[in-house]
Design goal:
The complex is a heterodimer of chains A (300) and B (458). Chain A is mainly α. Chain A is 71% helix and 0% strand. Chain A has two domains: 21-80, no CATH class; 89-296, MetI-like (MetI-like fold). Chain A has 14 helices and no strands. The longest helix of chain A has 36 residues, at 22-57. Chain A starts with 21 loop residues before the first helix and ends with a helix. Chain B has 458 residues and is α+β, with helices and mostly antiparallel strands. Chain B folds into three domains: 4-58, no CATH class; 79-153 and 317-457, Orthogonal Bundle (MetI-like fold), CATH 1.10.3720.10; 181-307, no CATH class. In chain B, strand 8 (267-272) and strand 9 (275-281) form a beta hairpin. The chains are: A mainly alpha (300), B alpha+beta (458).
Chain lengths: 300, 458
């Protein structure tokens, strides 16, 4: 990325120098020093709320209700992991595992099912293909709310309401349009000669899919995987409706404590922080794929 | 398996002839080899089943269900839709969504553009982008908890009000002493007068004024207050404002006793003929002094502002500010998305075009306004539209940030849908109507996506 300041334009050096509006004066004067200060302030604005959550989660409820978290800088001795110990002793571990048991299968299923469909859309001829793909594009932004009531009735009928498979299947279905869209657009770019060569050699479609398309599609699959993982990990609405108390993920477990926010700050802050550690680690580790997926799927 | 040689003009016989997409709607190059449609169906089947049962069928079902009452037994026609547009609390809900759609996308897109342009001018752009982008990875649930803490009304706990009060107090030093009043009586020099405290008689320099105050709650007493002192005699008009109360009893009313504290930060005015001739502020020991006041007799007055509560910031989570406050959290979450997309668009702009304009004498603002923004307009539109769709569907942030008592004032359609059908309402007819309403709201963007996709493909 270029770091040369663009403010060095020799504005006055030319005949017929431009009109000096107040805006120019400000942009000229800000220079890099002013920009630095503004950017540092903005960065703090984005960083401070999360730091606040972290510090609050490291202090006793009595301390939190008496003073702001920023006093920690003068009293570092108040740091304690007591809240986290209480949280884990109080059954939060099971909702952590529920989150994992919902998120991992969903991500795997979405990738597998969407990759198959995307391959068909990209490299197979069948009647109505283009029309069907437009349906997928249309389904990209269907609000989840539309399916809550019908699927709840359907789950009640087949007896999986409240269970983890029910939650997973709902997530998979609503993850598919984006996943198919993203992968199909990537697969289309695979050189035709590679596939033709494989087909000439008599490889089956399954073999081509597994040993040519899937490996070549790795970057797109990685982008999709991280997106899908974060979506499901962070979901609250679907869990709220379809997961019962035994199967609830962290988001639902924490939501049930929100009503008494003031007296539950210790549980809520430490629980919220625990729930965001894994997404943050993944995000920092795979941010390149995250951004790629965002770009590719920004029609959504 | 079943693959075989297929010429493009030789579609598999199992298919009704001619329905294979021709070159006109297949922009990609024709293929000589390909599997039979049966294989395609096998590859598509899992996705088709899931999308059919979980997405397409529910849309159809919801349309029918929305025409029936809460239990599903009575047909009500468009009655549920009528409720959406006539019920008072529903109208508040729709109004809130309208505020969201009008405000949030503009703010997010503008901020994203500003951030993207500014990051090109700093060396730590990557770090800045990571910081602003990070909330994208955090659940809206956690973001909600984060902002519940930020918006805490007590400026000693919530960052937002802590910053506001600090800024406020920097520009206005007045320390508030609500409910405080003068100790009145024959010996007292002062009396209460329409909310202010004034000297009964005009006073002159050389005779320090004693202003005894009572009725101050311990929690209001500023920590900086020092033991009160009599003002040193001098040529200026001076005096002492102090808390005339000795803890544990004792002490003489109207006199400064050893343990009594001064009241810092009081605004004191010297008034002559109804005009304020001078203003002073009390020190930590309660003393004040008017510098350079012309000699003469003045009424000393402690204006009413001293006896109002100190500034405590805004009630972010109250009924009035709740929607703007939650939009603030939404902006915090999404600005990074806008910034990263716009920055990528910015990087794709040919530098030559900008440089050429500068050499031709264009100012930075002109370059930005006439070249950068128009070249960015496709990506700005994508960000803007994505944000509109997101604001229409906003749920978690409102649900988590708004305290129970202000949920009605902060309600949005997506949340009301859940509440009506699952969160105690148990009215699936109205819930379905709300879901369909939401679908209709995103329909224009669905059509837009399809149009854009077809254009990009051809």
């Amino acid at each position: 990325m270029t770091t040369t300041a663009t403010v060095t334009a020799p504005a006055g050096a030319h005949a017929g120098a431009p009109r000096r509006t107040w805006v120019n004066k400000i942009t000229d004067r800000l220079g890099s020093g002013g920009v630095q200060v503004v950017m540092i302030l903005l960065g703090l604005f984005w960083l401070v709320p999360t730091i606040g959550l972290f510090v609050v989660s490291l202090r006793q409820p009595e301390v939190n209700s008496a003073e702001g978290w920023w006093t920690i800088f003068t009293k570092p001795a108040e740091i304690t992991i007591q809240n986290y110990q209480n949280l884990l002793a109080g059954g939060f571990t099971s909702s952590f595992w529920n989150t994992v048991f919902i998120t991992v299968p969903t991500t795997v299923l979405v990738i597998g099912i969407a990759a198959m469909a995307a391959y068909a859309f990209a490299w197979m001829e069948f009647p109505g293909r283009d029309g069907l793909f437009l349906v997928v594009v249309a389904l990209l932004i269907v609000p989840i709310q539309i399916a809550l009531i019908p699927v709840a009735i359907f789950y009640g009928g087949v007896g999986i309401f409240g269970s983890i498979p029910g939650v997973v299947l709902f997530h998979v279905a609503f993850g598919l349009p984006f996943a198919i869209f993203l992968l199909r657009n990537f697969f289309v770019g695979i050189p035709a000669s590679l596939l033709e060569a494989a087909r000439m050699d008599g490889a089956s479609e399954v073999k081509i899919f597994v040993s040519v398309v899937f490996p070549l599609g790795k970057p797109a699959i990685a982008s999709l995987g991280i997106f899908q993982f974060l979506w499901v990990w962070n979901d609250m609405l679907i869990a709220l409706v379809f997961a019962d108390t035994n199967n609830q993920p962290m988001t639902k477990a924490l939501q049930s404590q929100m009503r008494q926010f003031g007296s539950n700050v210790d549980i809520l802050s430490s629980g919220a922080f625990l729930s965001l550690i894994i997404p943050l680690v993944l995000f920092f580790a795979f941010q390149r794929y995250f951004v790629q997926g965002m770009m590719a799927g920004s029609v959504k | 398996m079943t693959e075989r040689l297929n010429g493009p003009q030789d579609p598999p016989a199992t298919i009704a002839g001619g329905s294979v997409p021709g070159p006109a709607d297949t922009p990609r190059k024709q293929r000589r080899l390909g599997p039979s449609p049966t294989v395609a169906i096998v590859f598509l089947l899992p996705a088709a089943v899931l999308l059919g049962i979980w997405v397409v069928y529910p849309i159809v079902y919801s349309i029918f269900r929305s025409l029936f009452d809460a239990t599903g037994s009575g047909f009500v026609g468009l009655g549920n839709y009528l409720t959406i547009f006539t019920d008072g609390s529903m109208l508040t809900t729709i109004r809130n969504n309208l505020i969201w759609v009008v405000v949030a996308p503009i703010v997010v897109t503008t901020l994203g553009l500003i951030f993207a342009v500014l990051t090109e001018r700093i060396k730590w752009a990557t770090a800045f982008k990571l910081i602003v982008f990070m909330p994208m990875a955090v659940s809206l649930m956690a973001a909600g908890v984060i902002f519940r803490l930020v918006y805490d009304e007590d400026p000693d706990k919530g960052v937002a009000n802590a910053i506001l009060t600090t800024v406020h107090d920097t520009f206005s030093s007045s320390q508030g002493y609500p409910e405080a009043r003068p100790r009145e009586g024959d010996q007292s020099q002062v009396a209460a007068q329409s909310g202010a405290v004034v000297t009964k008689q005009p006073v002159q320099a050389g005779q320090p004024v004693l202003v005894p105050i009572v009725g101050i709650k311990p929690e209001i007493m500023p920590g900086s207050a020092a033991p009160a002192k009599a003002a040193p005699p001098g040529n200026d008009l001076s005096g002492t404002v102090w808390f005339d109360f000795t803890a544990g009893g004792g002490g003489k009313n109207g006199a400064i006793d050893g343990s009594e504290k001064g009241l810092p930060g009081m605004t004191v005015e010297a008034v002559k003929d109804g005009q304020v001739a001078g203003t002073a502020t009390t020190a930590e020991d309660g003393t004040f002094r008017f510098d350079g006041l012309p000699a003469g007799a003045y009424v000393v007055r402690l204006p009413q502002s001293n006896f109002q509560a100190a500034y405590h910031g805004l009630t972010w989570l109250g009924p009035t500010l709740i929607t703007p406050a939650i939009i603030g959290a939404f902006v915090w979450v999404w600005a990074g998305f806008a910034m990263v997309l716009i920055a990528a668009g910015l990087a794709a702009i040919p530098r030559d075009a900008l440089e050429a304009a500068r050499i031709d004498g264009a100012t930075e603002w002109q370059v930005f306004r006439r070249i950068t923004v128009p070249l960015l307009s496709p990506v700005l539109l994508v960000v803007f539209v994505t944000m509109i769709i997101n604001t229409l569907k906003v749920f978690d942030l409102v649900f988590i940030i708004a305290p129970p008592s202000v949920q009605p004032q902060s309600n949005v359609i997506a949340l009301e849908m859940w509440r009506v059908s699952f969160g105690g309402g148990n009215n699936q007819g109205l819930g379905s109507a709300l879901a369909i309403f939401l679908l209709i709201l995103v329909l224009p963007f669905m059509i837009m996506n399809i149009r854009r996709f077809r254009r990009d493909e051809s």
